[in-house]
């Protein structure tokens, strides 16, 4: 799924997941998810308003990771990220440039 960084000001960057992704990937009432950030794995809490129009994830460790990778939004700029399901309530987060891409379907050229 495609998510975006979301900044609430200097030093507070998280993820905007989007309401469609919340309905599709997050069972209502889930309290915690695991985010795999390279070799680091963290547990992030989901607030009740996550399902009520504020689909955002904030955690100090996530913020530090985003900023260390230079993935924090600046001045109304967001950065797209891939959030790939990796088990029950577990997701791998990575920059779009590192995300696996589906192969293009190759069709044979018709003979003339």
Describe this structure in words.
This protein is of the alpha+beta class. The chain contains two helices and seven strands, in the order ββαβββαββ.
The gist of it:
The protein has helices spanning 19-25, 60-68, and strands spanning 2-7, 13-16, 32-37, 40-45, 56-57, 80-85, 90-95. By secondary structure, it is of the alpha+beta class.
Write the layout of secondary structure elements.
Layout: E1 2-7, E2 13-16, H1 19-25, E3 32-37, E4 40-45, E5 56-57, H2 60-68, E6 80-85, E7 90-95
Parallel strand pairs: 3-7
Antiparallel strand pairs: 1-2, 1-6, 2-5, 3-4, 6-7
Task: Provide the spatial order of strands within the biggest beta sheet.
Answer: 4-3-7-6-1-2-5
The largest sheet is: 7 strands, mixed
Measured as a percent range, the helix fraction is: 10-25%
Strand content: 25-35%
Shape: globular
Low-confidence stretches: none
Helical segment count: 2
Number of strands: 7
| Quaternary form | single chain
Structural class: alpha+beta
What is the residue-mean pLDDT, rounded to a whole number? 83
Distance between the termini: 41 Å
Radius of gyration: 16 Å
In sequence order, what are the helices and strands, one letter per element? EEHEEEHEE
């Amino acid at each position: 799924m495609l998510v975006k960084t979301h900044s609430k000001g200097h030093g507070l960057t998280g993820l905007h997941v989007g309401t469609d992704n919340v309905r599709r990937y997050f069972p209502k009432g889930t309290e915690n998810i695991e985010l795999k950030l390279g070799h680091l794995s963290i547990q992030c809490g989901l607030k009740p308003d996550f399902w009520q129009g504020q689909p955002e994830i904030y955690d100090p460790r996530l913020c530090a990771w985003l900023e260390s990778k230079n993935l924090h939004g600046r001045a109304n700029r967001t950065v797209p990220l891939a959030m790939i399901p990796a088990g029950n309530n577990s997701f791998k987060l990575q920059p779009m440039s590192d995300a696996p891409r589906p192969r293009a379907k190759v069709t044979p050229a018709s003979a003339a």
